[in-house]
Design goal:
The chain is of the alpha/beta class and 306 residues long. It folds into 2 domains: 212 residues, Spore Coat Polysaccharide Biosynthesis Protein SpsA, Chain A (Alpha-Beta Complex), CATH 3.90.550.10; 69 residues. Helices cover 43% and strands 16% of the residues. A 5-stranded mixed sheet has the order 3-2-1-4-9, with helices on both faces. Strand 1, helix 1 and strand 2 form a beta-alpha-beta unit. The N and C termini lie far apart (59 Å). InterPro entries: Glyco_trans_2-like, Glycosyltransf_2, Nucleotide-diphossugar_trans. This is Glycosyltransferase involved in cell wall bisynthesis. One of its GO terms (molecular function) is transferase activity.
Length: 306
């Protein structure tokens, strides 16, 4: 049997793992190693896109490539932003299925096999059309720098995908998902105007196209997300929320003014949290003032929401 991490170059790739990277020298080897140690027997391609790193990221990846021939590296001509890198990765993916990993997170050993086997079982039982527009997700661990133990996160599964995305109950992260590569291409490119929150925008468009989320048949966490708001610009976060609000305003408002107002205020709170973590008090109070203005304007227009 062919080693899944040393696939036959002329054979079929089952899964492409897409990893956008930028100045990730301190974490990238650990993240890639979490793919290399997966228990799956599927043929795996590890595809990275470096977005103009100025540290040792590319040298570390080159060392990994010498040991693992299933690793491919794309290099942007300059720093283009994560959405641009994501679009290159989707375009270059060779696998039937596609999944993601951020350069500082890790998958637990059984994650990819559980997702792969569920997709294959759906096809065996109901035909290839059974996984058209399906993304298979898992529970995960969430770890803050200040915490000793990770928290178990359990995104809800049900028939109200859009509402769960908008109210932030469904932690829609790309690295939780596996689906056909064609599904990712059908939804369309990642929005290059979004330095943050590309996954939320992608999932909103995915559900608009009648996409469905399916949880694997296990409640155990399958990966770990190292959550850290430090060194991440609060203004970028706030501007990304504003862009998503403007782009999908009709969808937010379709759930009524009370929900729309509450969800929009959540956007402001998250942006302020980033500002506080970075002690960026000027941005913190700017966003707070914008929230007050938004609430006053919304209530003046409708008497309650937007």
């Amino acid at each position: 049997m062919t080693d899944p991490m040393h696939p036959d170059p002329c054979g079929q790739i089952d899964i492409t793992v897409c990893i956008p990277v930028y100045n990730s020298a301190g974490e990238i080897a650990r993240s890639v190693q979490s793919i290399i140690t997966q228990t799956t027997t599927a043929q795996v391609e590890i595809l990275l896109c470096d977005d103009g790193s100025t540290d040792e990221t590319r040298a570390i990846i080159a060392g990994l490539q010498r040991q693992h021939p299933n690793i491919r590296l794309l290099v942007n001509d300059r720093n283009r932003g994560r959405p641009f890198s994501r679009n290159r990765l989707v375009a270059e993916a060779r696998g039937r299925y596609l999944t993601w990993l951020d350069a500082d997170d890790e998958k637990y050993p059984e994650m990819m096999d559980r997702q792969f086997q569920m997709l294959e079982r759906l096809v065996a039982e109901n035909g290839p059309e059974a996984i058209d527009g399906v993304l298979v997700f898992t529970n995960f661990h969430w770890l803050w720098p200040s915490e000793d133990a990770p928290k178990l996160m359990t995104p809800p599964e049900g028939d109200h995908h859009m509402e769960e995305l908008l109210n932030a109950r469904f932690g829609g992260y790309l690295w939780l998902m596996m689906g056909t590569t064609e599904t990712f291409r059908t939804v369309g490119p990642f929005d290059t105007a979004l330095p943050r929150l590309q996954d939320l925008d992608f999932f909103v468009r995915f559900v608009q196209k009648c996409g469905r989320f399916r949880r694997i048949e296990s409640d155990a966490p399958q990966c770990i997300y190292y959550k850290d708001d430090r060194a991440r610009g609060a203004m970028q976060v706030w501007q990304s929320w504003c862009h998503i609000w403007s782009k999908h305003r009709q969808i937010f408002n379709a759930y009524g003014p009370e929900n729309a107002l509450r969800w929009r205020r959540h956007h402001y709170r998250v942006a302020r949290r980033f500002a506080k973590a970075n002690r960026d008090w000027l941005t913190y109070w700017f966003i707070a003032a914008q929230e007050v203005f938004f609430i006053a304007r919304a209530r003046a227009r409708t008497g309650f929401g937007v």
